[in-house]
Amino acid sequence: MFKYLLYLSLIVPIFGFSQHQIKGTFSPATEFKATMLYQLSSGNVNYTSYGSVDKKGVVQIDLDASIPAGVYKLVYALPQSDHNFEFIYNGTEDIVFNFDRATGVEFTNSKENQLFQSYKQSISTAQNELLQFYTQKTLDSIKYRKYLLQIDSLQNSYETLSKGLIASHFIVASKPYVPSKVVTAETYMENPKSDYFKPMNFQDTILQSSNFLIDKSIDYILGMHTSETPSFQQYTANIDAVYQAFSNTNLAYQLISLNTLKELLIKSQQEALAVYLTKTYVLPLAIELSATELMLSLQTFLRAAVGAKAPNFEIQDPLTALQTSLYELKDTTTYILIFWSSDCGHCMKELPQVHSYISSHPEKDLKIIAIGLEKKPQPWGEVIKKWPTFTHTIAEGKWEHSIPINYDIQATPSYFVLDASKTITSKPYLLKDLKAVLDQK
């Protein structure tokens, strides 16, 4: 529904007296049409207002006096999860910003946001200087202590400057690891992991009302490793540590947060980790809280996740008169399922490329099963004649058919790679990803 609401000019918030405003300039101006403002609260997202972007890239949103201070999110394009930024509104100042597609957001008015943005830039620069220092063959202890003092001084200075502000919650929680003495590069890289969550109060409702804890957690899961090639067990140990950090928070907030992390792992093409997180923590929490809709969604995800045996389905190919099922297919080491539709433009561009790839690599033991998500048999029955080497079947009823439902298909084309036992080994997101997988066969 959000997809259709975002650009509806009929959605105009009705406010009384305007106390403050959000005003920004987007660049390039022609690439932006509208924005939507949301208030964030402990994992929940509440619609607040709408603003049109004019021809010069300017947007202005007037804020009613009743709008509370807190953390807000401004969405400026679709998909909203990839095109937004958060900011602090303290109820006492206007928010003015410039947003550039290439460089992101810069606040030109708002003490809260300017202070936090300045803090992040300053700390990042100081930490990078220390890391650069570690690349030297010998460590000068005097210079080393100078770098440590600089980081510590910056942290203390910004904590003092932000005292009493909403930004203080984020600055205190972002405190970096600073060793008390000269340590080796290996020790410097190891200790931040053990101290990673110490500055963060996971019960802080301000931190909960932003992506801060989520962002820190996904960085920990994927990035906090002492080995250059972490094992699966090391990744799952990081997931366990993240769960422990969330374990003292409200159960509903835990569920929202851990499910968000699951989605981020999927987006990062770490589905095996998403499966572990779901089975170990997210699904049990959903069951405990009787979150029926989420439970069904999680079960559907697990049913068609990497490592699971692909759901069986009937195959009726009108080109060859073949009537069988997925599980009955034999004598092939690799199966590729393609979910597509004859009215899908991307599908009509990509399927010929897959057909050409298969035709030009007869030495590879590959079999394509193309499942057409169609409202009716025509024009599907004519279109499939272009790809005679595929095994075809139709899911008449499109999204409502049991096959795409069992495979949790959200878009076409979608690709699944199976081994000889019909276990899902990968789910390439793009055609180039599929080709990369097949090149290794």
Description:
By secondary structure, the chain is of the alpha+beta class. It folds into 4 domains: 2-107, Sandwich (Immunoglobulin-like); 110-200, no CATH class; 211-303, no CATH class; 314-439, Glutaredoxin, CATH 3.40.30.10. Helices cover 40% and strands 22% of the residues.
In short:
The protein has 15 helices and 15 strands. By secondary structure, the chain is of the alpha+beta class. The longest helix is centred in the first third of the chain and has 23 residues, at 111-133.
CATH architecture of the largest domain: 3-Layer(aba) Sandwich
Give a count of the beta strands, DSSP E runs of length 2 or more: 15
Number of helices: 15
Radius of gyration: 26 Å
Number of domains: 4
What's the topology here?
Layout: H1 2-5, E1 18-27, E2 34-41, E3 44-52, E4 58-64, E5 70-75, E6 84-89, E7 95-100, E8 104-109, H2 111-133, H3 141-161, H4 167-173, H5 185-195, H6 205-208, H7 212-223, H8 232-246, H9 251-267, H10 271-288, H11 292-303, E9 314-317, E10 322-325, E11 334-340, H12 345-360, E12 366-374, H13 380-383, E13 391-396, H14 402-406, E14 414-419, E15 424-426, H15 431-439
Helix pairs in contact: 2-3, 2-4, 7-8, 8-10, 9-10, 10-11
Features:
single chain; globular
